[in-house]
Amino acid sequence: MRKPFVAALFALVIAGAGAAPAVAAPQAARTADTASTTTAAARTATIQAVDFAGTVSLSNCSGSVIRFPKSADTDPALVLTNGHCLETGFPSPGEVIVDQASSRSFGLLNSSGTRVATLRAGKVAYSTMTDTDITIYQLTRTYAQIRSSYGINALTLADTHPASGTAIKVVSGYWKRIYSCDIDAFVYRLKEGDWTWKDSVRYTSACNTIGGTSGSPVIDTTTGKVVAVNNTGNEDGETCTVNNPCEVDASGNVTVRKGINYAEETYQIPACFGAGNKLNLTASGCVLPKP
After folding, report:
1. 172 - beta bridge partners?
2. In this predicted structure, what is the pLDDT of residue 49?
3. Domains of the chain by range and CATH?
4. Please, which residues bridge with residue 198 across strands?
5. What share of the chain is helix, strand, coil (3-state, %, to 5)?
6. Integer Cα distance of 123 and 97 in angstroms
């Protein structure tokens, strides 16, 4: 959630990529030595497997085709991006949008980052910038149809809370760029302008994401599953302003980390979708904000 894309690009030209944190483009282990070696080898193999397959590019953001642990191949496929990437504008604080008509298009990428197809939404299944920053689109094709036509599988959302220290990759379909770092910590409250997000992911500094990476899937390199969605960063060192989120702890203390970027967890999403990938905000375990 930051400056418009044109301004962001200009800032990159004059200041370098490290100066611009991530947002929407427009409006944009260890036991014995042997076990340790085996684990490291497996981890390396998994890291190498993280690529662009299943990610998408939007007109102003990044995203990914996602499925839940219990999704069926015959279910309509879903695309995950940020709430602030919604084509109709930022949802207001407290606003939750469900089942809103949409025909938005997405560029589907293969493993090398080549656009192989255009996918289209049938509706916005869910969108909000309250407590979290997500938009979930329902597509007009099923997972099976996408795989049959293009040989690409959806990314699976983890349904458990991620852990601090986890090695992650932020995969931007918009820029066709992959950022590598770790989960540094979890932020009790992340406040930006009028919006407040709960239990946000703070990256280590290596993930210096930029405008247009908003909505990128954050992938656990050990499991290959999506654990968060990239959404913002503090650009100028300001306190709690738009494009300059601040951290607020349980006691109300405010911390500003200029140049550090953040994501919103996604483990809570699967509980809110049932058979057929149908949204059910009253389902047991569903904690997403309701309209």
Report:
1. 177
2. 80
3. 55-155 (2.40.10)
4. 189
5. 15, 40, 45
6. 11
Is residue 139 within a helix (H) or strand (E), and if so which, with residue range? strand 134-142
Q: Token pair of 47, please?
A: 């890291």
Q: What is the pLDDT of residues 199-246, one digit of tens each?
A: 999 999 999 999 999 999 999 999 999 999 999 999 999 999 999 999
- The three-state DSSP-derived secondary structure of 144-172 is HHHHHHHCCCCEEECCCCCCCCCEEEEEE
Task: Give the position of tokens 């662009």.
Answer: 52
Instruction: Give whole-number Cα distances, 282 to 73, 127, 221, 271, in Å.
Output: 24, 16, 32, 10
Give the pLDDT confidence of 51-94 residue by residue, as tens digits: 999 999 999 999 999 999 999 999 999 999 999 999 999 999 99
Q: Which CA distances in Å does 237 have to 9, 203, 215, 234, 259? A: 19, 16, 22, 6, 8
Average of per-residue pLDDT across 137-144: 98
